[in-house]
């Protein structure tokens, strides 16, 4: 049987995570697993709700560009494309108004390059604008509408923002500017209508029949750019140059899709799969410079590279400086200027990491001191005078990971608290803020992430109200660290070919996470630490009923080496000969020119043997 402390709820990062299967009802492999049963990749597909024998499975494992939906199905896109083409032909000034995160930056670049391709002489008449995160805040603002109108803009097209911008839309109309809104964030509540803009392009606009609801801002901008191209050519069949441009622009769309953590299924999966290929081989000098600064040039780039190396550098511009530099990098920068900006983004990102660690340490200390990490208070809500508002969102994610509960962190300044929130699976953060809406100056975002502003005098009342709302909806077991298992697997199934088959599920991300398998009843042969400061743990595992031998499977002799990163602390609890269940992410090692299976351990459970 399992040790009781292996299945009870936390402490954090012990042998106490809650293991659940992705599909309700349990293990998709339905009983003891043998190599002669269905292929491992097929069982994983079934665990994710995809019938391995159905056409959907083939489309999932082998996505094609023709799986992308017709952009004209998105409400408002034809009207928006027609107006932008008219402005280009008439020599009118167009302003692209973006957001300051990766999604907004890449969406801006997509429209800029498509407009320039359709009207090469329009370079001086295409403006880009991105608000300053600290001085202007998120989204469209009325002052910027007036400023852009004063600079001659006749059309303003927003990307990744604007669907709730009622007052800015009125200002744009008063200035005689045609405002086109393209967005993917939650639209206004039913009955509130949409902003009074020339066009609103949104896949989830009221009455929409668009077949995929989860595009990010860059994805929506990509669809608008595509529709502009087909309307320009008056045909779905494009010139070779425009077809090539649309393929190249997928690189920007992929960055936005991955960085904005939208579900990597459906169209997003197609965009990410094909766009990642173009990230490392882009004709856009700014993107090449960023890849080089991220030390990714010359290799295959995957979603993890984007999430942990490329996207943080782009986000650093908006968090620590001004995102207009990142927009310049992707639009007008010369090769020399692009290299300079890419270096500056790396410096800003390093500073962001230092600030982030300081805030995280303070937030953990404050949350524990305030009793926000116990079972009776199921949300963390904190404010501090010295917290950088451009960094608190990242720290929120780390606080959520540490304490398995929604977290809201804010900077307190001049009587106003401004910041961000992140959530756990099963708790709708946007709905939680809506429930406390009368206490807030403004807020917006998604089910899992949001931004908010409130008067400092209401901080305590908001904290109590939000915590009460969270307490009413978050069950105690939801406070446990969660390990989601796709299915059970036998150790002998982890062959190099099986791991390669599972790699067909890439790119991994939200709603298509990395594969996690439960390998039960394995014997620990040896364990040792390695790496700088001996921080990491390496274990040798063998099936409990295996005698090994030179003709064994997997890595030979029936033994599989597995890695637990940053878990050297487990050594005293893992005696050679112990019987374990391990949750692993299958992976290959190519060390020394030899390919072997080297799973990465997500969690361990100890058996208590009679």
Task: Characterise this structure.
Mean pLDDT is 90; it is low at 1-14, 30-36 and 548-555. This protein folds into three domains: 4-48 and 486-606, OB fold (Dihydrolipoamide Acetyltransferase, E2P) (Beta Barrel); 70-348, inorganic pyrophosphatase (n-terminal core), CATH 3.90.1640; 370-478, Diaminopimelate Epimerase, Chain A, domain 1, CATH 3.10.310. The protein has 17 helices and 20 strands. With 610 residues, it is an alpha/beta fold. The protein has helices at 40-47, 55-61, 77-90, 102-118, 142-150, 166-174, 217-233, 240-259, 266-279, 285-293, 303-320, 324-330, 335-369, 392-403, 429-435, 459-473, 496-502; strands at 18-21, 93-97, 126-129, 153-159, 178-182, 199-201, 380-384, 407-413, 416-422, 442-445, 449-455, 482-485, 487-488, 517-530, 536-543, 559-564, 579-585, 588-589, 596-597, 600-606. It is globular and about 75 Å long.
What topology does this entry show?
Layout: E1 18-21, H1 40-47, H2 55-61, H3 77-90, E2 93-97, H4 102-118, E3 126-129, H5 142-150, E4 153-159, H6 166-174, E5 178-182, E6 199-201, H7 217-233, H8 240-259, H9 266-279, H10 285-293, H11 303-320, H12 324-330, H13 335-369, E7 380-384, H14 392-403, E8 407-413, E9 416-422, H15 429-435, E10 442-445, E11 449-455, H16 459-473, E12 482-485, E13 487-488, H17 496-502, E14 517-530, E15 536-543, E16 559-564, E17 579-585, E18 588-589, E19 596-597, E20 600-606
Parallel strand pairs: 1-12, 2-3, 2-4, 4-5, 5-6, 7-8, 13-14
Antiparallel strand pairs: 8-9, 9-11, 10-11, 14-15, 14-17, 15-16, 17-20, 18-19
Helix pairs in contact: 3-7, 4-7, 4-8, 4-12, 5-6, 7-8, 8-9, 10-13, 11-13, 12-13, 13-14
């Amino acid at each position: 049987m399992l040790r009781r402390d292996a299945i009870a709820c936390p402490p954090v990062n012990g042998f106490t995570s809650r293991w659940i299967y992705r599909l309700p009802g349990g293990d998709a492999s339905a009983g003891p697993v043998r190599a002669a049963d269905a292929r491992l990749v097929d069982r994983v597909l079934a665990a994710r709700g995809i019938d391995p024998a159905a056409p959907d499975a083939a489309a999932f494992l082998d996505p094609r560009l023709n799986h992308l939906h017709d952009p004209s199905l998105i409400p408002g896109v034809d009207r928006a494309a027609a107006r932008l083409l008219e402005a280009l032909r008439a020599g009118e000034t167009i302003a692209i108004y973006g957001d300051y995160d990766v999604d907004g930056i890449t969406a801006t670049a997509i429209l800029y390059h498509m407009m320039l391709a359709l009207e090469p002489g329009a370079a001086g008449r295409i403006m880009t604008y991105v608000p300053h995160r600290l001085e202007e805040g998120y989204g469209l603002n009325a002052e910027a509408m007036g400023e852009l109108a004063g600079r001659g803009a006749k059309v303003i097209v927003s990307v990744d923002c604007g669907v709730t911008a009622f007052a800015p839309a009125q200002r744009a109309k008063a200035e005689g500017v045609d405002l086109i809104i393209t967005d993917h964030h939650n639209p206004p509540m039913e009955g509130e209508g949409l902003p009074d803009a020339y066009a609103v392009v949104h896949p989830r606009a009221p009455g929409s029949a668009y077949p995929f609801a989860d595009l990010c801002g860059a994805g929506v901008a990509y669809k608008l750019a595509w529709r502009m191209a087909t309307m320009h050519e008056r045909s779905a069949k494009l010139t070779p140059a425009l077809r090539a441009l649309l393929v190249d622009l997928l690189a920007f769309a992929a960055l936005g899709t991955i960085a904005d953590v939208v579900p990597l299924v459906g169209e997003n999966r197609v965009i990410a799969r094909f766009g990642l290929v173009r990230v490392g081989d882009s004709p856009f000098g700014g993107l090449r410079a960023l890849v080089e600064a991220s030390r990714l040039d010359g290799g295959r780039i995957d979603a993890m590279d984007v999430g942990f190396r490329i996207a943080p550098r782009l986000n650093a511009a908006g968090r620590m400086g001004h995102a207009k530099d990142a927009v310049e990098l992707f639009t007008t920068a010369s090769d020399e200027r692009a290299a300079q900006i890419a270096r500056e983004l790396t410096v800003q990102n390093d500073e962001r990491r230092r600030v982030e660690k300081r805030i995280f340490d303070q937030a953990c200390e404050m949350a524990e001191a305030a009793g926000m990490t116990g079972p009776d208070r199921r949300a963390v809500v904190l404010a501090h005078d010295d917290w950088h508002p451009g960094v608190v969102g990242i720290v929120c994610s780390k606080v959520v990971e540490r304490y398995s509960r929604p977290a809201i962190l804010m900077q307190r300044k001049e009587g106003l608290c401004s910041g961000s929130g992140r959530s756990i699976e099963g708790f709708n953060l946007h709905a939680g803020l809506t429930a406390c809406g009368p206490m807030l100056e403004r807020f917006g975002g998604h089910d899992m992430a949001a931004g908010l502003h409130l008067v400092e005098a209401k901080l305590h009342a908001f904290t109590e109200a939000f915590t009460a709302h969270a307490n009413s909806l978050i069950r105690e077991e939801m406070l446990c660290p969660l390990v989601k298992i796709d299915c059970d697997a036998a150790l002998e199934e982890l062959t190099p070919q099986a791991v390669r088959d599972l790699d067909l599920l890439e790119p991994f991300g939200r709603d298509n996470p990395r594969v996690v398998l439960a390998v039960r009843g394995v014997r620990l042969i040896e364990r040792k630490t390695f790496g700088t400061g001996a921080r990491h743990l390496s274990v040798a595992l063998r099936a409990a009923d295996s005698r090994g031998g030179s003709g064994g499977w997997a890595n030979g002799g029936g033994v599989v080496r597995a890695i637990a990163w940053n878990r050297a602390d487990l050594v005293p609890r893992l005696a050679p000969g112990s019987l374990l269940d391990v949750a692993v992410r299958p992976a290959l090692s190519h060390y020394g020119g030899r390919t072997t299976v080297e799973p990465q351990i997500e969690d361990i459970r100890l058996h208590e043997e009679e």
